[in-house]
Design brief:
The longest helix is centred in the last third of the chain and has 20 residues. A 7-stranded parallel sheet has the order 4-3-2-1-5-6-7, with helices on both faces. A 4-stranded mixed sheet has the order 9-8-10-11, covered by helices on one side. Helix content is 45%, strand content 14%. The protein is α/β, with parallel strands linked by helices and 411 residues long. The protein has 3 domains: 146 residues, NAD(P)-binding Rossmann-like Domain (Rossmann fold, 3-Layer(aba) Sandwich), CATH 3.40.50; 140 residues, no CATH class; 95 residues, RNA polymerase sigma factor, region 2, helix turn helix motif (Rna Polymerase Sigma Factor, Chain: A). Strand 3, helix 3 and strand 4 form a beta-alpha-beta unit. Bound molecules: magnesium ion (MG). The site of magnesium ion has 4 residues, from helix 7.
């Protein structure tokens, strides 16, 4: 391997962020060597990526591993094939990897990300759920191992760029911008009629299904508030949200002298990905340059918390602390999955999440039982995973007892 080349592992290589990452690497082949790839189940696409980028090792969900092994043998390719969560974690700590792009969807990201941190890989983080679930653990582990976490999430990348070389103590607050999603102007009274296709039709960004639904409920912004708290070590009240329908200003940092610095660009994930892959150098992203004359107008408005209560939930679960964000995140993943499968109405997502936050508040204020201590104190990854499980069980319980039956036995 060329010593000048950065060895890269991509976890979640067949998803939207994984594809964009490989696109940026493809334009900068002299700078990068793909060491490892992992995906959940898309063996057909993974085999194409193996042919195009010749990784040393790959990992796939255990049920798809036999299919992948057969395809690799048929094509006579040379690559080590691992499987399941232990396989993903092993790919993440490969000795030739300098950087791990964490682009898996959801809570499944946490174990491989932790493994990469413990093996001192630079993390380019797109998997916000891992920070939402166990932000304090991941950040303290990164500090312990001297590991840098570079944010791929466009808002957080914008803040990262706007913070360069500044004293963190000079930051007054940050402002996460939000497109407002497809239902920004739809009256709340019409939310009952929202279909899956309506919700999957994001105005600005082409993304995976899970994050597209999160954008429609604005749960994505809720998760991003929590993500920002840990990445930039801020107090919750220092994190503001502003709706900006054009998605050109990707977020801003306001300093104590009242200067506000922002990063702008076309809504194209290859830009923050290129920023992380090349950091601290600038490399080609393949995206088109921003043409403000063509855009003409940038607008901003306050988020409508009544219509999108999920934004307030971020501050609520951060105040509750411990595994509360993980419980909210697990419940959200479960609800989004049900909505994508046509099992629940769009409005049920926010309603059930609201129930969960109320339940957590009651539990925190009432008698605490030791068996649910993880909801308010996370000292290891298993606590965060237990809170995630609790959140999913809460959803199951509420939806199966829809006729107003009490859910107190979850305490
Ligand atoms: Mg984002």
């Amino acid at each position: 391997m060329n010593k000048e080349q950065r060895g890269v592992v991509i976890l979640g290589s067949t998803g939207s962020i994984g594809l964009s990452t490989l696109s940026v690497i493809g334009q900068n082949r002299d700078r990068f060597r793909v060491i490892g790839l992992s995906c959940h189940q898309n063996a057909a696409l993974l085999i194409e990526q193996i042919e195009a980028f010749s990784p040393t090792v790959v990992s796939i969900g255990a049920d798809k591993a036999p299919e992948l092994r057969k395809m690799v043998a048929d094509k006579n390719l040379s690559v080590t094939i691992l499987e399941g969560m232990p396989g993903h974690s092993e790919v993440a700590r490969h000795p030739d990897a300098d950087m791990v792009v964490a682009a898996m969807v959801g809570a499944a990201g946490i174990e491989p990300v932790m493994s990469a941190i413990q093996h001192q890989k630079v993390i380019a983080l797109a998997n916000k759920e891992s920070l939402v679930m166990a932000g304090s653990l991941l950040i303290s582990e990164a500090d312990k191992h001297g590991v840098q976490i570079l944010p791929i999430d466009s808002e957080h990348n914008a803040i990262f760029q706007s913070l360069r070389d500044e004293n963190p103590e000079d930051v007054d607050h940050i402002t996460l911008t939000a497109s407002g999603g497809p239902f920004r102007t739809l009256p709340r009274s019409k939310f009952e009629k929202i279909t899956l296709n309506d919700a999957l039709n994001h105005p600005n960004w082409e993304m995976g299904k899970k994050i597209t639904i999160d954008s429609a409920t604005m749960m994505n912004k809720c998760l991003e508030i929590i993500e920002a708290k840990w990445l930039f070590r801020l107090k919750a009240e220092q994190i503001h949200v502003l709706v900006h329908p054009q998605s050109i200003v990707h977020s801003t940092v306001t300093y104590k002298d009242a200067s506000t610095i922002c990063q702008m660009g076309t809504p194209d994930m290859r830009i923050p990905i290129a920023n992380c892959l090349g950091y601290p150098d600038r490399i080609q992203s393949g995206s088109s340059f921003l043409n403000l004359a063509e855009i003409e107008t940038l607008t901003f408005e306050k988020p409508d918390i009544d219509k999108f209560p999920s934004i307030q939930m971020a501050y609520d679960v951060l105040a509750l602390g411990g595994g509360s964000p993980a419980a909210l995140n697990g419940a959200n993943e479960d609800l989004v999955d049900r909505f994508l499968n046509g099992k629940i109405a769009f409005t049920r997502i926010s309603e059930v999440l609201g129930d969960l936050v109320r339940q957590l508040k009651e539990m925190k204020n009432g008698l605490k039982k030791p068996e649910t201590a993880f909801l308010f104190r996370v000292t290891q990854v298993s606590d965060a995973l237990a809170a995630d499980r609790w959140g999913r069980d809460f959803v199951e319980k509420v939806l199966s007892e829809q006729n107003g039956v009490s859910v107190t036995d979850l305490h």
